[in-house]
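R.M. (postdoc): so does anyone remember the format we settled on? I'll just put the structure tokens first.
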């Protein structure tokens, strides 16, 4: 279905309608939604997918998607859900996660999925360690600093004395380039 002219036109029309409404969604999200909707119509009406396209309305779909985005944002705001707090810029663990990206790119041969997975796991573990300093199940698993978060931060800073450099976009980009990679938009 995704390779058909009708599908490609439907995605383009829906993205344009969303843009008119001031809503930005990833094209893959719109594609998935269109595929699901058209397949559901075909199944429920017991018709072929190519016949189900006559029921497709990009403006109506864009309205529903825009309403869903708006409802989600409103419900999140009402419940106090917002942007996750960022650690301070001089956070040693965050510096290590950032510093690990160029090395991870080189080690994985540019496998972006593996790099993102590595970053996510390291960030999650750093958050777990920070938030679970009194976790009895983690006893003995944190090395010489144990559960003392400040001691861990001092140890990391001693290992990487110039942690602040990793918060400079240009330094980080040079390190990625030195590893033989660049991130560019298609």
């Amino acid at each position: 279905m995704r390779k058909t002219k009708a599908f490609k036109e439907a995605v383009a029309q829906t993205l344009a309608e969303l843009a008119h409404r001031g809503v930005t969604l990833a094209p893959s999200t719109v594609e998935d939604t269109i595929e699901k909707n058209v397949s559901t119509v075909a199944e429920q009406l017991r018709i072929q997918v190519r016949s189900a396209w006559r029921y497709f309305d990009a403006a109506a779909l864009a309205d529903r998607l825009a309403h869903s985005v708006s409802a989600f944002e409103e419900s999140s705001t009402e419940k106090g859900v917002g942007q996750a707090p960022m650690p301070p810029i001089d956070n040693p663990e965050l510096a290590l996660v950032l510093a690990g990206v160029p090395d991870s790119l080189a080690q994985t041969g540019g496998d972006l999925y593996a790099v993102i997975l590595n970053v996510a796991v390291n960030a999650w573990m750093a958050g777990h360690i920070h938030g679970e300093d009194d976790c009895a199940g983690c006893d003995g698993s944190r090395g010489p600093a144990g559960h003392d978060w400040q001691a861990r931060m001092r140890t990391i800073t001693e290992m990487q004395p110039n942690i602040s450099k990793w918060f400079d976009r240009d330094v980080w980009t040079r390190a990625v380039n030195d590893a033989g990679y660049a991130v560019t938009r298609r």
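R.M.: ...and that's the designed sequence above, right after the tokens. Also worth knowing: DSSP finds eight helices and no strands in the chain. The two ends are 24 Å apart (CA to CA).
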